[in-house]
Amino acid sequence: MVQEPTQDHLIGTIVDRRYMVRSRLARGGMSTVYLATDQRLERDVALKVLHPHLANDPIFLQRLSREAKAAASLSHPHIVGVLDQGEDGHIAYLVMEYVKGHTLRDVLTEQGALAPRLALALIDPVIEGLAAAHSTGLIHRDIKPENVLLADDGRIKVGDFGLARAVSANTSTGALIGTVAYLAPELFLGQPADARSDIYSAGIMLYEMLTGKQPYTGDSPIQVAYQHVNAVVGRPSEAAPGLAEDLDELVQWCTATESENRPVDGTALLAELRHIRTTLTDEQLDLRQGPAPTPPASATATTPIGTAAENPTEALATTASPTEFISHRSNPTTIMAAGGPALQHSRAVVTGTDADQDMRPPGKRELKRLERQQSKDRARAAATPVRPLREGNPRRRGVIWTIVIIVLAMLAASAGWFFGMGPGSPGTVPDVKNKTVAEAQQLLRTAGFQSEPRDVFDDDILAGLAVGTEPESGAEVRKFQPITLFVSKGAQLFALPGLTGGTLDEAKTALNAAEMALGNVTEAFDEKVPAGVVLSQDPAKGAEVRHGTPVALVVSKGPQPIPVPDVRGLAQDAAVKALQDAGLKAVIAPETVNDKTVPKGAVVSQTPANGTLVRGESVTLTVSKGPKMVKVPSFIGKNADDAIAELKKLGFIVERTDWLGALFNIVREQDPKDKEVAEGSIIKLTVV
């Protein structure tokens, strides 16, 4: 990740006496993102500092605080965690998990269309994160490749959950925040976002992953928005021939123009996604398209409408698809640009045209949607009168009108009581965090609310205590509105896989798949296990731990090397014992050799003579027969010089003693003579 080489007055300072700002990562329309160090916990974090025009708005800060708390309640391995939120003087900030790596946008920019196997593997954790958020009632509202973070260690996380809501709530009436290329049609029409809006964005993103391009492009955002509202997303196989029909149906199910025709939430989509992954063949999963052409510059990436908003990705900001605002104030069903056409045309015409051009038989999911639509049409027809009511006489009409007026008056009085003092009156949701279930329900009943407990996993709150509510504490809602009380089940635990017996790389892969962390790796000698194989793990296999728990490994260095001792010159038995004591095996060579310096029965040589071996390996010993026996001839009466030369040639050592000056240089005496002695023995000569 390239950090911006720019001067910034915050770099080098400490925010809120805790966060040391190290460098600037990105800057957008709402905030600047810094890499900081949490000095209290000694870890890197992404510090998002709001721009002054937002930091000075107390209403916005209130909304942002509520959204940050809701996002912080999400504890899931595929969701970027919100760690802290606060103010330090004129600085308002959010602290988020720092994810070191790159974004899905970077992958798409580099590779273009992805093989279905890779595309489904990358989007699976995204949908799993959405499912977890949707189950708690939290909507993302800005799903796009820039918000999908791919960490260097293989983790995949979705960033900025729920934060788009706080930004859009701070804009003018009817303002819409999001990236035009991925927004659901209902959001352009002023309708509220729900889980199915996230599903639509995920479907557009999957289309781009499979084909290498977005389904809708244009010269301005209004043109792209018009297509979202009035067109039907085509089959990915039309842009990338050869894709399986199941992938076409999956994308078109997610991107249905009517939200009721999409998967109801992330959990429903995740089940279908995983089912498709198991039914496709290897050939269908590994289908690769040619290199995607560089997409032309379009409004989805370059031309904002209204106020530009930032891309809120925590630690991997990019400008490829900035978030945009689109305002639709006066007419919630029409979006107008300066000199541009209205978005809302007859969808039936556009859909019908597409259907006429596509003559392929519908898939199973399309048949189900057609059945649902026919059922709704029959219900409407049954509710429509086929003839007018009879007029009746004037007196009867007067009585009827009197009764109607009385009923309306009673209804008005009842409505006044209902919304003024009764169940429809407003109330403030109390804070129940860390209360027991009984205490939390009593607090809610006292405030006039009925609650429905729902168990959730939470890493910070003990099992059996309240985590929070939806709507959250402090919200003002009508008392008849049901309150969901979230009760902690404690931290979610997962069984550790067995890592022993495999290589270190295999253990790392298994830890990544189980979403665990690699702890300390130490090495130890082992006489039986080859080098590089995992000997043990801590915690042990099957232990129930949280995701992200570090697992320490001990890896074999193989058998311990043993230095070869030098046993040359030792007696055979002593040499064998010395080798055995060192953990080596002695092998005696069958042939013995004469050696004039090594006595009989001692080791003359060994192979190897030095270096190292492993326990149980062999050293070959050659044993001496002692010196060779040689007969000493008599040299008495012979020239001394000739005698000495001959004796040395036979391998003897000669000691010469001259008598009377050795005037004649003749050997007078010799000891020994005419017998066999050991090679190298001393022969004494007396010379006259």
Write out the CATH superfamily name of the domain at 101-379: Transferase(Phosphotransferase) domain 1
Question: What characteristic shape results from the CA principal axes?
Answer: elongated
Q: What's the CATH first level of the domain at 101-379?
A: Mainly Alpha
Distance between the first and last residues' Cα:
101 Å
Largest sheet: 6 strands, antiparallel
Structural class: alpha+beta
Average of per-residue pLDDT values: 80
Characterize the structure shown.
- Among the domains are: 101-379, Orthogonal Bundle (Transferase(Phosphotransferase), domain 1), CATH 1.10.510; 494-556, 2-Layer Sandwich (Trypsin Inhibitor V, Chain A), CATH 3.30.10; 561-626, 2-Layer Sandwich (Trypsin Inhibitor V, Chain A), CATH 3.30.10; 629-687, Trypsin Inhibitor V, Chain A.
- Helix 4 (116-135) packs antiparallel against helix 11 (266-279).
- By secondary structure, it is an alpha+beta fold.
- The relative contact order is 0.07.
- It is built from 20 helices and 32 strands.
- The strands form eleven sheets. Strands 1-2-3-4-6-5 form a six-stranded antiparallel beta sheet.
- Mean pLDDT is 80; it is low at 1-5, 166-177, 292-363 and 379-392.
Task: Sum this structure up briefly.
This protein is an alpha+beta fold and 688 residues long. 32% of the residues lie in helices and 23% in strands.
Question: Which structural traits does this protein have?
Answer:
688 residues, alpha+beta, Trypsin Inhibitor V, Chain A, 6-stranded antiparallel sheet, 20 helices, elongated
